[in-house]
Structure formats: C-alpha cells, structure tokens
Amino acid sequence: MSNTPIRVEIVSDVVCPWCVIGYHQLARASEQSGIAIEVHWHPFELNPGMAEEGENLREHLAAKYGTTPEGSREARQRLTELGASLGFEFNYADDSRMVNTFRAHQLIDWAAGQGRQHETKQALFRAFFTRREDVNALGVLGAVAEEVGLDRAGALTMLESGELAGTVRQKQRFWTERGISGVPAMIFARQHLVTGAQGEENYARILQHCLESEAAERAG
User: Fold this and answer.
1) Long-range CB pairs of 59-64, under 8 A, 24+ apart, other chains included
2) Digit-coded pLDDT (tens) for 171-200
C-alpha cells in the first residue's frame, strides 16, 4: 500500500444498494492497486420524507420510479449477484421494506466522534441489506452500536434526545447545496467528484491519477 492514503469522501445513504457496491468496488481497487484510501462517510437521505413505519420496497420503487414487479425482481437479483462477487450479502425478499434513515445517520455521526464511523456504516449496511432489519428502530440501532464496540445505552440516549439531529441536517445541506442529488457520490483528494458505482477498474484508475497528482505537487 502507498504510504499516504488518498482521502475519499463518500456521500451516501445506508439503504442505498449502489453505495454498498460502490464502496466494495473502491475497497477492492485499493487493495489490488496497493493504493491506500482513507474513507470519510457523509449523510444523504434518499427519502427524507419517509414515514416512521417505512414502506414495502416493491411498492416504494413502483411509486417513485415506476418500477414493475418484474423489473424489481431483476434488479434485486442483479444486486444480489454483484454483491456476492464483492463479498457482500444482499438478502432481498418480497416483504423487504424501505425505511427512514435519519436516526441511522445520527448514529454514524455519533460513532465518528469515537473513531467508529466506518465500522458503524458497514454494520448498518449489513443490518439493513443482509439481516433485513429496520435501521430506524431504536433497538436495532442500539444493537449496531454494541456490535461495533460502542456503548448501547449511550447511543440510545443520544438518539432519544435528538442532540445530533441539527448537526446531521446541516451536514446533509452542505452536500445538497453543492449539487449532490444522487448517491454514492465520492470526492477523491478533495477535488475529483465521481458519482455512481464505477467499477473496480475505473476506481483503480482514479486512485492512480490522484497518487500521481499528489506526487507531482510534492515534486513541484
């Protein structure tokens, strides 16, 4: 691995399957190229108006994008296969639900202050996509905090108080006001914006370009 990691900001939502795919493609590109990365996660809600009880995933996709039942099944199968090739398990079912993620983003922000942001984000991906858990539920979020070595009671106290709600809203606005309207959105070395899951080869090329650019700046 290169000595100085390439900083990568990833704006994403915990219920975004392509954010899972994009991150794992990036991680594999980093591993295979030997170019280290330093990932920082930032909040984005695909469905900021999502009700507390959530919605059936198929019905949600049909209403939002006009996705047919057949199209939904094909998309889920494609994601499942792609995830498996990257070592991530998508476990979709006909009763899978889309849920509100604002509390999940508050948990990630709280975890960041304790050096556990990345682990918490990955645990939330697993909770939602692999175990099909409601990542808006306090019990699930408390269990995720505990899973990554954080204090469950402290996490629940923070979530119930809403002490980080304003901070997370401000961070969401920061990115939307800069034109981020879809995720994943990755900013490499604070200057190169790339949207969508780009694949391992493209990410490797981007990392190499960043590495060469930084080397040129140091040399110049």
Assistant:
1) 60/98
2) 999 999 999 999 999 999 999 999 999 999
Q: pTM score, two decimals?
A: 0.95
**Distance of alpha carbon 204 from alpha carbon 25, whole angstroms:** 9
39 φ/ψ angles, rounded to the nearest 5 degrees: -95, 135
What is the rounded distance in angstroms from the CA atom of residue 136 to the CA atom of residue 13? 13
CA distance 33 to 2: 9
H, E, C per residue of 116-174? CHHHHHHHHHHHHHHCCCCCCCHHHHHHHHHHCCCCHHHHHHHHHHCCCHHHHHHHHHH
- Write the DSSP symbol of residue 5: P
